[in-house]
Every structure is written in C-alpha cells, then in structure tokens.
Amino acid sequence: MKVTKLVSTCDLKDCPTIYATDRGTLLVQGETPADHGLDIPAHETVVEIPEQLIFDLIRKGLRGF
User: Fold this and answer.
1) 6-51: per-residue pLDDT in tens?
2) Is residue 19 within 8 Å of 4, Cβ to Cβ?
C-alpha cells in the first residue's frame, strides 16, 4: 500500500495525521479513546483527532496531493 501524508498537526510522527492511500481510502492517526461508550467490532477501532485537522484537510483539498 502506498501512503501519502495529507495533513498533520505537526511534523513529528506522533501527532494526529490523515493519509491517503493508493486504494482510494484514508488512514487516520490519532489517540485511541477508551471512554467513548461505543460498541465497536473487535476487528475495528476508533481514533480521536482534532476537528481542526478536518478543516485543514478541506481547505487544502484532496486533489493534487
């Protein structure tokens, strides 16, 4: 899988980040919250990212990365 960084909250490797893949999907890096109260299947997870990261991605645009 080829992964391209789209937007991040910092230049380090341990910050919330959104990546595009060559599969036409997005990968999201963020904190794994334990107090969400959701019933998530064992093969899935949820991550928490700042909403500003999504706004930055929209402003930057998904095309031409």
Assistant:
1) 999 987 778 999 999 999 999 999 999 999 999 999 999 999 999 9
2) yes
Token look-up 């599969």 returns 23
Which pairing describes strands 3-8 and 17-21: parallel, antiparallel, or unpaired? antiparallel
Cα three-residue angle 63-9-12, rounded to 5 degrees: 110
Of residues 19, 11, 16, the one with CA closest to residue 50: 16
Tokens of 11: 């230049």
d(CA 34, CA 50): 16
Residue listed under structure tokens 């019933």:
39
